[in-house]
Amino acid sequence: MMKTMLEQAKKAKAQVAALRSDEKNAALHAMADALVEAEGEILAANALDMEAARGHISEVMLDRLRLTRERIAGMAQGIREVAELPDPVGRILEEHTRPDGLLIQKTSVPMGVIAIIYESRPNVTSDAAALALKSGNVCVLRGGKEAFRSANAIVEALRRGLAACGITEHAVNLVQDTSRASAAQLMTAKGYIDLLIPRGGAGLIDACVRTATVPCIATGTGICHVYVEKTADPDMALNIVENAKTSRPSVCNAAEVLLVDRAIAPAFLPRLKERIPQVELRLDDFAAAIIPGARAGDRDFDTEFLDYILAVHCVEDVREAVAHIAAHSTGHSDVIVTQSPEAEGYFTAHVDSAAVYVNASSRFTDGGEFGLGCEMGISTQKLHARGPMGLRELTTYKYIIHGNGQVRV
Asked: Pairing state of beta strands 195-199 and 224-228?
């Protein structure tokens, strides 16, 4: 079944790549409408997924899995927003004319067939399908077993939208096998998959990076830091830490580590503990002398908790904070809260992450918040794509050369 799906996806590549902007936009609106029309089917499928997963995954992970009428409406709105974005295909990125008269144009083109391996987040299904179609790509989706029924209902709705516009249903494909074997097949499907994007926890991403023989972009793992520097406005800092940790702790842009200057820790940490009582604070020795809490273990500053847990470390100054981030960050999103231009400058110059924030929550690292409509994932690598991966990151380029009979001497 996998080989048949990959062959169908490869065959669909030419049709999808040739779609005009108006055709893609009409299809996206039809897909959004079909998603809303299928709300009942999708919620029923999601209820079965929730029932099967309850007791096997944490409450915060159940929240990632849960769909509601509002979330489905949000998914549809995300598709419509992608339709309104500029078409990334066919842009002339650079052009110049050579002395011999050749006009050389560097032009954006689709990747081809993009495979996405993701875990228990049903909304990724519609986001990925929308971004792939708008960028002229075919997508092969392989979701986690916890969300399979939900993803399947979503894909069936999206395919109805495609069919209504005369576009092949094989533009959007869902792998029916959720075993590790199917993931391994995608990782090694040379000749079929042009780009592989793993979107999930560290284990999934590491497996893809180690195993893949197709081009792969590492995404997602977020050990995100918030550093409260001694000149920070304490109320602003409390608001940012609370939002970064508690607004949705199960996502990759949630804060996992708090750094606080020792000069303000005695005043700031008691207020923090009172502000976020639902969060388990894992404290270094300096912090533990100020407030009660669990002692931080050896791995707590290198763990993506995805839960109501926050590791706390006190530092002398911005230089020590930056050194700690360099040793423990995954290069996703890191924050400084400060009123000092000098501390801000040092932090932004020396923290080597995809998103570096000054006086704002790390929760903004998101395709929608960055104006990209939605995202295929957050790239934490440096080649080709970095940060939220929107439409432009799903294209490559080719050189188109215009001549009038030139031959090379």
From this structure: unpaired
